[in-house]
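Why do we care about 3D structure at all? Because function follows from shape, and shape follows, mostly, from sequence. That is the central idea of this module. The next example makes it concrete: a single protein chain, its amino acid sequence, and then its structure expressed as tokens.
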Amino acid sequence: MGSPFRQIRSAGFKVSLLTVAIAAAAPAMGQVEIERVEVIGQAVSTDKALREQKASDSIKSVVHADGVGQLPDDNAAEALQRIPGLSVERDQGEGRFVSVRGIAPDLNSVTINGTLVPAPEGSRRAVALDVLPSELIQSLSVTKTLTPDMDANSLGGTIEVESLSAFDHDGLFYTISGEGSHDENVGKNSPKFSGAISNRFSLGDGIDNFGVAAAFSWQKRKFGSDNVETGGAWDFEDGARLEEVEQRDYEITRERTGFGLNFDYRPDDLSSYYLRTLYSKFKDTETRNASGVAFEDPQLSGERGDGEGWRDLKSREDTQEIKSYVLGGERIIDLWTVSGQAGYSESTERDPGGIAGAEFVGDFSGIGFDGNRKPRVAVGSDFYDPAAFTLDEVEWEKVSGKDKEKNIRLDLARDYDLAGHGAQFKFGGKLSRRDKTSDTEVWVYDDFDDVNLAGYQSGNVDYALGNYGNGISAGAIEGLIGGLDRAAFYDEENSRINDFDMREDINAAYFMNTVDVNDLRVIAGIRYEGTEFEAKGTGLRDDVYEDTKSRNRYDHWLPGLHLHYQLAPDTAIRAAWTNTVVRPTFGQLAPGFMIDGSDAEFGNPDLKPLESMNFDLGIEHYMGRAGVVSAFLFYKDIDNFIYNTDLAGTGAWADFDEALSFENGDSAKLYGLELAYSQKFDWLPAPWNGVLLGANVTLSKSDATIEGQGAKRSIDMPNQSDTVGNFMVGWENDRFNMRVAANYKSKYLMEVAGIQDEALDLYSDDQMFVDFKAGYFLTPNLQLTFEAQNITDEHYYTYAGRRSYNAQYEEYGPTYKLGLTLTHF
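And the structure:
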């Protein structure tokens, strides 16, 4: 505790980085009295973020619970989008996966209380952060440059989730909230309740040395969207001719439940021990009605011709759960610090069985579409006659997946004197064992004798993008197939080739040394990670099933260097050279395959991991209370870039017409600039002293090369937006607060078409979401809040090659919320 180096470290000015803008955006939460606002309001939230970011040896961005609670965000993903360089992938308008500095979500890692969070989805590594309610979180941080004592498994950054501790507050703390929301699209209301409590107790001879904290959240949200999509099925050889178009209406009930229980024990000033637990459950009940037309010959907008029409129903229930348990502690023994942690986390996805598709089809003449960007189906009155559609097939699907990760970590550090300078060497290791399984079972019911849509209809579908008509009744479809022999319709092919069991064992060790020379801190070290991978699955070769098994082993030595120079009391320069490694996604590594004559589709368990050399350089300057301006440059040189391709005509696939898989590219490059500014104008006279302002923007550029079928071309990295930005303006006093927050990201490449089909590449269009929140303290402890999300009714749009040609258009509408929060400190 009293070593010279430890004193130097605690006194040193550490990086606070860009998201002070976010912490500064948090309004006062709690007591109206000025002295109480000083304790629990916006300024303290900013100070908490500053202290954590300054204490970090990495370039790190932090949002604390006070800040998260004051932003109009339902989950961790939406809170993180306010951080510079971060954007989100949305599902039905709600933030889900997080992209860091333009790097796809699968190439970043997520930890909860220091242990890796596995992904419930069978094919992904990315963790859907909409599973985590924001109320269960004490802080969110994103580390963009990794020191050797951190897992090296991220290209963009490591997202760290910390849950509530009793030592975050003095004495008894509790808060409870109730909220009602109204979704404009479906016209339905939804409830939400959350709360947290913590307190400290005295054990043995200690005083307030044992803490217990608990948090819970429950929400049942009813919402939906209206959609029209082509899937990019355009033929540009003879004008812009379309092959098919579909209208979709989604109605969803999303139930999110979370609970956390944490224990802390600090018997003396030299030791601390903790147990962190977190449980989150995310349940979607979805009904999707779809109707569409496929043209006999591709048509131009405004043309009419012959084709097939269909009406289709999907009705399913999908449940995802995350469980995390972390036991750890730290002990200081003279000049040594010993810390360790054991963690277990488990993610599951389960669909107990539902209608994956119930399709009625019919033949029609005089059909077409109007408009290329938001096409409207053009059909006659016979398209709305249920007798014109006969049942083609019903697909019933059952899905279960599990991703388990166990780890144990040990770190040892010793402070020492190096030629009169405070220094520390640190070394340690980590063992991680991960097991991911996926099991799908499919039944396809067909050969129905003249069963038409009459008798299987539900009420009129509320579809805002055109005329739709009646939907399909899930209950009627379930009643129809319930009386059939299930075994006779089992689809062995689709039930087996997508199943897998993958094991990934990682052994890691590192050494690093830190030295402070006057105003300069230098951290240098190296990390070793050895990976053993095994995959088991099933392939289908010309109607014959084959068991598959693949093994792979690779080793990486990852050096790193961090520099931090205190240019002036309020100005710091930071630089870092780091090396990271990211394993391919489980979908890319899938051991299953399907070969049918001259066509093949398969995963590639022999893929090499992505390796990245990263350079970061930046400066930041602090301006009084809650003020910062900063600029950071970054550059990433990525080897073994992975892309989807067609291997037909090459190597073992020389005689094939199509061989779809994944391959390693040579390299990809990403470079960019992050700028941020935030300030509270509390030195101005009233009422201007209540103004809050924050803005940040990340400008980036990427370049990657793909090749196949004897051709080569350059592309942007998928999911990488050239521009990501946030803007916030607000005002607050002791009793009232309000703010408007806007989040923008530019277009990005979403899906690469064939190597020679650049015109069919799919892009996601730019988006800007604008949200509003206001709060009024009815009493010093009771706050009434109002929120309006997506107040500009922003939509989601993807296109094929050029912005004029639809791949998917989807509208969500705004959501309004009214809430009441009681807080005691």
